[in-house]
Specification:
351 residues, alpha/beta, D-Maltodextrin-Binding Protein, domain 2, six-stranded mixed sheet, 11 helices
């Protein structure tokens, strides 16, 4: 409609100019011409104003549309960037269980290709330092498997002897990256360290001389001398729950306890059945397991407190060990020859 008015105004202006041309030079003609010029000027001015208004409106409309498009594009781009950032963060959290890998001692040391791992040096079938300086046992195989999954070859591992009473101290001081050494998970210990796993569930039992007939279970230990290692929990459990009159004797290692049993200084040794089975297999005919398991001991891999990323990475490695058959193969090789019945893996590693 505005463009129609513009055309009409221009036509009127042209007519006024024709009228001016037709007039003569007289005074009346001059007045007419003046009126015509004024009319023409007004019409043309109105036309120009209309044209300017129309053009300005078009420009404003175009500018508004362009600005809206820019705002829409900017908003969409920002939303996509936010989603991408959120997705990346979610992927990192899924990989590390929400922990920060940069704060994990285990993962940082593994990046450098080296790990220091605490194990037992004196537990046949589980953790032993051999005369040639090599190491063997189920726990040793677990430690090596986890290290490999974290990117550290066997040549990058330093094994450190870690006795039961030293474990929390070595972890808190950063002397080891993690410990794989028949380390039972308890509520008290979880206040000081993190645990990955459990990777094995043992049952507390008793080791006695092969010809012993009067010790038939934990309730038959009143008046007897029971040996366990300093810093471990099994002997205290026996005294508290089964035989309050038992005399407890502690040594630094299970090997010392077994030597005391052999010499008759103590009447029985208590700890987890898989540990005792290793000693029985080492000295055929000397000892026997009573065979009455009376508690569950969940073995975990201990590492620094609140290292969520490291804990999750190790637990993932343990699941892989079960899945690819390496877990069972390690048990068959290390404790199978003793006649010990290989148990099923913990449910948390098969889910």
């Amino acid at each position: 409609m505005k463009y129609g008015k513009l055309s009409a105004a221009l036509a009127a202006g042209a007519a006024a100019l024709l009228t001016l041309s037709a007039c003569g030079s007289g005074s009346d003609a001059g007045a007419s011409v003046s009126d015509a010029v004024n009319n023409a000027t007004s019409v043309v001015g109105g036309a120009v104003n209309t044209a300017t208004s129309v053009a300005g409106g078009a420009v404003n409309t175009a500018t508004s549309a362009a600005g809206g498009a820019i705002n829409t594009a900017t908003s969409a781009a920002g939303s996509m960037a936010d989603k991408a950032t959120s997705a990346a963060g979610s992927a990192m959290n899924n990989a590390t269980g929400g922990g920060d890998p940069s704060k994990s001692k285990v993962l940082n040391d593994a990046k450098g290709g080296k790990l220091t791992i605490g194990i037992k040096f004196d537990q046949p079938g589980l953790g032993v330092k051999n005369p040639d300086g090599s190491f063997s046992g189920f726990d040793v195989d677990v430690a090596k498997y986890v290290a490999k999954k974290l990117g550290v070859p066997e040549t990058g591992i330093t094994f450190v002897e870690t006795k039961s009473a030293e474990r929390e101290d070595k972890i808190s001081k950063g002397e080891v990256d993690y410990i794989v050494g028949t380390y039972s998970i308890t509520d008290e210990r979880k206040q000081k360290v993190n645990f990955a796993g459990p990777y094995f569930i043992a049952h507390q039992d008793l080791l006695v001389k092969a010809d012993n007939t009067d010790i038939t279970g934990p309730e038959a230990l009143n008046g007897k001398i029971l040996c366990s290692v300093t810093g471990s929990t099994p002997a205290q459990k026996v005294k508290k729950d089964y035989s309050q009159q038992v005399e407890l004797q502690e040594f630094g290692t299970y090997t010392e306890c077994v030597e005391q049993l052999k010499s008759g200084v103590v009447d029985a040794v208590t700890t987890d059945d898989v540990i005792l089975a290793g000693y029985a297999a080492q000295d055929p005919g000397q000892f026997k397991l009573v065979g009455k398991g009376f508690s569950d001991e969940n073995y975990g891999i201990g590492l620094q407190k609140d290292d969520t990323a490291g804990t999750d990475a190790i637990t993932t490695a343990l699941k892989d060990m079960v899945k690819d058959g390496s877990w069972k193969a390690a048990l068959d090789k290390n404790v199978g020859p003793s006649g010990y019945k290989i148990p099923e893996p913990p449910a948390n590693l098969t889910s």
